[in-house]
Design a protein that fits this description.
PAS-like_dom_sf; alpha+beta; PAS_fold_3; PAS domain-containing protein; PAS; 7 helices; 20% strand
């Protein structure tokens, strides 16, 4: 039996949802959805049986640059919890923005058994002013020059601000500003530290 879901056509309209709700999901190591709470199901527009057993990218929006997911997977595969801002797409094609924290679920032997995602809404002004323009630029670079070029641009963007991706997101949410002159004590780690070292 083929239980694949047909991909919807993206709409420029936002999902009308209760942004005080927290969207929860659990996946296995391959990203297959094992559990989704009621709020997640409601926002996605899918029925529960349409989500369970499906790859998590069922809700991926085509506006998302691939480099953000590369950073995400490189981090969690290195046993690092991480949070990222993601534009998702519902079954109707409407979009919704969330900041998603991914936590690693380990088995009794300490091996990664899966991931737990907690999603909260992101202030619209931060999306419009900072996140969306950055993601559009990254996506355009990917389409023209490939994912490697998009990754190089993101590294430079973050180096200019002396922040990791997570520090940049946290700073935006905390202050509502993209302050290039504020220097963070945080150092680059994971993907960005490795990539930068390769360039030396």
């Amino acid at each position: 039996m083929d239980n694949r879901i047909n991909r919807p056509t993206p709409s420029d309209r936002e999902v009308d949802w209760n942004k005080t709700k927290v969207l929860l999901s659990k996946t296995d190591t391959k990203g297959t959805i094992l559990y989704a709470n009621e709020a997640f199901i409601d926002v996605s527009g899918y029925d529960e049986h349409e989500l369970i057993g499906q790859p998590h990218n069922i809700i991926r929006h085509p506006d998302m640059p691939k480099v953000i997911f590369k950073f995400l997977w490189d981090s969690i595969k290195s046993s690092e919890n991480i949070h990222v801002v993601i534009k998702n797409m519902s079954k109707t094609g409407r979009y919704y923005w969330v900041v998603t924290e991914f936590k690693i679920i380990a088995d009794t032997d300490g091996e990664i058994a899966g991931y737990f995602g907690t999603r909260k809404s992101v202030p619209e002004e931060l999306i419009v002013k900072f996140i969306e323009p950055l993601y559009k630029k990254l996506l355009h670079i990917e389409q023209v020059s490939g994912q490697g070029a998009s990754e190089d641009y993101l590294i430079g963007f973050l180096e200019e601000r002396k922040k990791t991706y997570m520090e940049y997101i946290d700073h935006l949410i905390a202050t509502g500003k993209d302050d290039k002159n504020k220097i963070s004590k945080g150092l680059f780690s994971g993907l960005f530290e490795k990539k930068t070292a390769q360039k030396k």
